[in-house]
Amino acid sequence: MTTLDLAFVRSQFPAFAEASLQGQAFFENAGGSYTAKPVIDRLTRFYHQRKVQPYAPYAASQLGGAEMDEARDRLAAMMGIDRDELSFGPSTSANTFVLAQAVRQWLRGTDGAIVVTNQDHEANSGVWRRLADDGIEIREWQIDPETGHLDPAGLATLLADGRVRLVCFPHCSNVVAEINPVAEVCAMARGAGAYTCVDGVSYAPHGFPDMGALGADVYLFSAYKTYGPHQGIMVIRRGFGDLLPAQGHYFNAGTLYKRFTPAGPDHAQIAACAGMADYIDALHAHHFAAEPDARLRNNAVHDLMRAHEVALLQPVLDHLAARNDLRLIGPRRAEGRAPTVAVALDRAAEPVAAALAPFGVMAGGGDFYAVRPLTAMGVDLERGVLRLSFVHYTSEAEVAQLMSALDRVL
């Protein structure tokens, strides 16, 4: 089995050569990852050479437009979708908000219902819940208050009467971190006549999605958490996207990705997103034989990244589970979860995160906009949780540094 070459991986991220970050182990990746060098290079080039209105009939403009097209083409190919099924926006929260306004128009005056969970980050929960103001029924798929687990049997009950039109749920929560069975849930919803909207923000940093395998109608994630610039990325499949009322300029309604882009996109950051594809392709070329299919390259890199993360995560989970002064949120087995580890302490979490900093550990404390799942699990919001999150560029030495620091601080 191919093993991730960590030295090669870290050579792709300028942060690891930055003098000010030496000795600092980064464990708040769920809030935003380091940026890959190809992304930085593309963004710099765009601002230096191509920061003009794109698609005009002169060289700088044509080159800028071509780079934007390249980003859309290559990311779409990686995820196995048509290029116009990929929308860019200022953030995932903004993309979800725009999508919710389209759904509001679609379902207003009908007896259709929407399922949300109490496992979600508020960005993929609050906007849907507010549609109740227009008389749209909102049904809550609830987590187990002890484990945070979302049981598909609970969804089956909510779907039983055939009135649900949309199911909104996370690929994994940003505090529970259990990887939900997306393909199974999407198949259940489809069988009941419902579409699906998956919040992939907390999962995509651990591998870009294969949309054909997942079967979701919408999949949302954030480029700044997947080694890219600060953009939100929304995959919306044609069957659902064409059904919804357009939210952009009326004369752009014939282009799927423009239907849900009401404001002018950030040209430079869209172009820089091609650097994420550069990075995935560089990992594949370094570790595997040549493969012409971008989706298969992406899937191979996904598995490579996940294997490394799982190997590093299990010792962390075991170490935390052995302590009697904290509550470990989510599954105890690394294979079933993302390496985003939240713990509830017997004290406020944010000062603990601050106390870790002198030991070279960068972590966070608070509610992380996951107020609903933390409340459902009985976590004191005044204390919040300490969140320790990493990705595939994290090293075994950094994990040891984290556990040593935790023992000293706690």
TrEMBL record:
Residues 26-402 form the Aminotransferase class V domain. Pfam families: Aminotran_5 (PF00266). Gene3D superfamilies: Aspartate Aminotransferase, domain 1 (3.90.1150.10), Type I PLP-dependent aspartate aminotransferase-like (Major domain) (3.40.640.10). It comes from the Bacteria. One of its GO terms (molecular function) is transaminase activity. The keyword rRNA-binding does not apply. Keywords: Aminotransferase, Pyridoxal phosphate, Transferase. This is Aminotransferase class V-fold PLP-dependent enzyme.
